[in-house]
Fold this protein.
Amino acid sequence: DAVLTQIPLSSAVTLGRPASISCRSSQSLVHSDGNTYLSWLHQRPGQPPRLLIYKVSNRFSGVPDRFSGSGAGTEFTLKISRVEAEDVGVYYCLQVTQSWTFGQGTKVEI
Amino acid sequence: QVQLVQSGSELKNPGASVKVSCKTSGYIFSIYGLHWVRQAPGQGLEWMGWINTNTGKPTYAQDFTGRFVFSMDASVSTAYLQVSSLKTDDTAVYYCANSGGQWGQGTLVTVSS
């Protein structure tokens, strides 16, 4: 199964400034159907995870457009264009191309 | 709207069993697979496996074979996770999530004597 490595594991961000998180896979996440099933989740303290991005770059319902995803193959990035206070928490990348595998998580603090 | 509502917190003794439920609503149950994820205190997310809600076939991740059982009752749109022979290391929040991206609120299972 693919191993996902997130960089950084923690990040101190500034309100109103951009932020980004990288996720590297040990193997290509391109499915035999041609899609790449890499998602990003956000988990606030004491809350369940919430899906932000699916299939690399598609925002889930209700997700603000300051969140964007990009990448291909084995290298992926989540970007926040302007960090808001509610964006604190832990971000996980998740591959569902072959079973499910989570990255270790990146803790984002203001 | 789509909802996944899990059963409440549990406190169990080592060696006991626990059954967590995940009741879905707002969509046709068989459309999305139902996954189980474990989060130990202060740790990351760990995929336990999933159940095919069309066929009822469970698939377990490597670390979750033997003591873990996924089941479902399509008539009430509910999936279940049963853990037997509980160990203190099983203390965690257990989440259900469907393959459509929706998550339950989590169920805290505490194993302690």
